[in-house]
Design goal:
The complex is a heterodimer. Chain A is an alpha+beta fold. Chain A has 14 helices and 17 strands. In chain A, 43% of the residues are buried.
């Protein structure tokens, strides 16, 4: 996976790695007719990163901190050139810009709608926003002035159908052409129905069991390795994901560059797990808590059942795990504070950059409560590799560091990575060129429908 | 009667204060940090802290409540945490969708329920009586979720007769005036939209009407049986009045008090939104909104909704009481005395 040019036609980074210069596409217009230029890019960035910007107050900006944090300044060089200065060399930046962290919006619309810009988006994309009826539908129509290949569809209606069985029935009646987030039973029925196409694609997510390395028994590496040997991931994938996932070995999925294919997963082996526990000094096992997520996610569709399975596997090697449940807000809060022993969580790394997983979830910078590194794992060598990779430019230079970091992760087992789920969409067979993006975002630019 | 109404409206103030305190405390006693819920599992700790600050969650409870009350008195229910929109506007938009569905459901259930109840009571222990009362029992016990999905499967998927989701066909030309689609289509003379929205109402309204319909039928039957054994009915019959006149003018009118109570109560409940029906039929109503807000711990939205329900219940009850005045002349005399 790689980042492709759209509104920026090319980019380069200064020799000290601090200034990114972007050449912008000429002749592009926003949906309201405002010309797209360096000024528009600056306004769109400034309102997100500059706390004193007059339009900053209108957003909660929950995601930008993830990937735009190091960006300190945006400078207009000329009409079609813009420069971004970061406080330290930050290689993942281009991948992060491909996310939805900072969409380039019409400056006139930002001015006009202020806090309501989110409900009246004015961008440059292939489809124009028409109408949004809350909890019901969003309508977009073809942008006749789109700079790239014009879309085939005249109009798209995005309809909210909260009930999953009703969603599948809506497909069956022909009321809708495409649906996602369907249950495995519906997917199976759709596969047997010649009127539907089932599109599957690996996602860039991971569901994992984090082991709190700050807890006395769990701080022992042998115990963590024993837990990894005790869990039968294949059965979890077969029964919980109904086969719509691949078993996870590393913290991020193999579709992302820098994945270490040489690492062999801990095999499911009760004897080995018991032997490791005995070696660690717990021949009769021990008692612990297993925290189960209260909500289901693509990376963890049935968290409680998964927890029950894992509880069974742990019991087989003598570890007595009590399942603990909290309401979602409390769950996130308490795991971030490190109150758990074992907890289940997951991550969607939309920018397809290893840094997003390794730095965000496993670096010691993020292990102080409230922490995103819920294993509270601190490994100086791993930290060094990941930090160094952030400041190197070019995948070929960064990848070797990530390969090594994954080896350390594998040896130390701060998590047992469980699964990378598969994204499934079902569509009417008359629909063609339906793309799936691994981060779950949709692009309907090329889609066309048979009469 | 005016003194009666003003007395009731005066009570409303105390009910609202009580409800607001209760809701305020209840939401805060449930474990879990709304700031964390709001930003989700992908947020940084700094974000969580910033949101807490922004929402005023770091203040003491009494202070938070006083601020809330102060805003409420100026008609401001606060800003929804999730959508950044005024809660009052969020509630109102969805309430209109709920009103449409509730009115249709209560109309359907009253019409069928009363007719079934009257016929059952008149033909006591007949086949019709047994059948309709067994059906009423089934109706009360019916899982709405299952019924709704089965209706969709039968009428939309298999037969293709009725639409299964939303208030009107996706993408149809609809320019709101009041926000009530049926009323708006009449006001604009947009007949295709009227037909379309009525068709969209049939399945959800019927699903939602099942339980009230069954309750109303059973209540009508028992109330009618009670009245039919009264002396004045015997007198009326002895005077030689037609049995139709006896049933509709003498019996039904007197049997109506408990029926009106049941209808009013159910209508009030329906106006609070019907989570299951709205979810199955993708109806953008208040019930779904409350549940979603509750799950997201959207404090201002949940507080707003519950206060709103309290007001609706009080108003519906007031209307029911006023209907009593109309139905029962004895109450009018008492009020004067």
């Amino acid at each position: 996976m790689d980042v492709e040019p759209q509104l920026a036609t090319s980019w380069s980074v200064s020799s000290d790695g601090l200034v990114w210069t972007f050449k912008l596409r000429k002749g592009v217009k926003f949906h309201d007719g405002t010309p797209f230029n360096a000024h528009a890019v600056k306004v769109s960035f400034d309102r997100v990163i500059d706390k004193s910007h007059p339009f900053h107050q209108y957003g909660t900006w929950r995601y930008p901190a993830l990937g735009l944090g190091p960006v300190k300044e945006v400078k207009v060089i000329d009409e079609y050139t813009v420069a971004l200065r970061t406080e330290k060399p930050y290689a993942p930046l281009v991948a992060n810009l491909a996310l939805w962290l900072c969409p380039i919006l019409s400056p006139a619309a930002i001015e006009k709608y202020k806090g309501d810009i989110g409900r009246n988006p004015v961008g440059t994309g292939p489809f124009k926003f028409v109408k949004w009826i809350k909890d019901d539908q969003i309508i977009v129509e073809r942008n006749e002035d789109y700079w790239g290949q014009k879309p085939h569809l005249d109009r798209i209606i995005l309809k909210a159908i909260p009930e999953v069985s009703a969603r599948f029935m809506a497909l069956q009646t022909g009321a809708i052409d495409i649906a996602d987030d369907l249950d495995p039973d519906s997917i199976q029925m759709a596969k047997n129905n010649p009127n539907f196409k089932v599109i599957e694609q690996p996602s860039v997510n991971v569901g994992y069991l984090a082991i709190n390395t700050k807890k006395p028994i769990l701080s022992n590496k042998l115990v963590r390795q024993a837990i990894a040997h005790a869990i039968d991931k294949q059965t979890i994938i077969k029964t919980i994901f109904r086969g719509l996932a691949i078993s996870a070995v590393n913290p991020f999925p193999p579709s992302i560059w820098g994945y270490n294919f040489k690492i062999k997963d801990y095999e499911y082996n009760v004897q080995k797990a018991k032997a490791l526990l005995a070696q660690a000094g717990y021949p009769n096992g021990f008692s612990t808590e297993l925290w189960a997520m209260p909500v289901s996610r693509a990376y963890m569709p049935e968290p409680v059942k998964t927890a029950e399975l894992i509880q069974g596997y742990l019991a087989a090697v003598g570890i007595n795990a009590k399942i603990v449940r909290h309401e979602w807000g409390a769950y996130l809060d308490k795991t971030a504070k490190g109150e758990h022993d074992l907890c289940m969580l997951g991550w969607l790394g939309g920018n397809a950059d290893p840094d997003n997983f390794l730095y965000g979830l496993l670096h010691s910078d993020n292990s102080k409560p409230p922490a995103a590194n819920v294993a509270f794992w601190q490994n100086p060598e791993f930290d060094r590799l990941v930090k160094e990779a952030q400041e190197l430019f070019g995948k070929e230079k960064r990848a070797p560091l990530y390969l090594k970091a994954q080896e350390i992760f594998h040896e130390e087992v701060p998590w047992v990575p469980l699964a990378h789920s598969t994204i499934v969409r079902i569509c009417n067979k008359k629909l063609h060129e339906v793309p799936l993006r691994p981060n779950g975002l949709n692009s309907f630019q090329m889609v066309w429908k048979e009469k | 009667m005016i003194s009666f109404i003003s007395r009731r409206l005066f009570h409303l103030i105390f009910i609202l204060i009580g409800v607001s305190i209760l809701v305020f405390l209840m939401l805060r006693l449930i474990p879990g940090d709304p700031a964390h819920l709001l930003v989700g599992e992908f947020a940084s700790p700094q974000d969580v802290a910033r949101i807490r600050e922004k929402l005023g969650l770091n203040e003491s409870y009494p202070y938070q409540y006083l601020i809330y009350l102060k805003h409420l008195l100026s008609g401001d229910m606060g800003i929804s945490i999730r959508s950044n929109l005024p809660v009052s506007q969020e509630i109102w938009d969805r309430f209109l969708a709920t009103v449409e569905l509730s009115v249709a459901a209560i109309f359907l259930s009253s019409l069928i329920g009363i007719i079934a109840g009257v016929v059952s009571s008149v033909r006591k222990y007949s086949i019709f009586d047994y059948t309709s009362m067994v059906m009423a029992l089934a109706g009360i016990s019916m899982p709405i979720f299952w019924l709704g999905l089965m209706l969709i499967y039968l009428f939309s998927v298999l037969l293709g007769l009725l639409p299964m989701m939303g208030r009107f066909t996706m993408g149809i030309d609809y320019q709101p005036i009041t926000g009530l689609v049926i009323l708006d289509s009449l006001l604009r003379g947009h007949l295709p939209l009227l037909a379309d929205s009525l068709k969209h109402l049939i399945l959800p309204a019927f699903t939602l009407a099942t339980i009230p319909m069954a309750i109303i039928a059973r209540m009508t039957r028992s109330s009618m049986l009670d009245v039919m054994s009264k002396n004045y009915i015997r007198t009326a019959r002895a005077k030689g009045l037609s049995s139709r006149r006896v049933i509709f003018q003498h019996a039904l009118k007197n049997a109506f008090l408990p029926i009106v109570t049941v209808i009013g109560l159910n209508f009030g409940l329906l106006l609070g939104g019907a989570v299951l029906t709205e979810t199955i039929f993708s109806w953008p109503g208040l019930g779904r909104y409350v549940v979603d807000s509750l799950l997201a711990r959207d404090y201002p939205a949940v507080q707003g909704c519950i206060l709103f329900f309290a007001v609706i219940m009080v108003i519906v009850n007031l209307i029911v009481d006023l209907l009593y005045f109309y139905l029962d002349p004895r109450l009018r005399i008492d009020d004067k005395g």
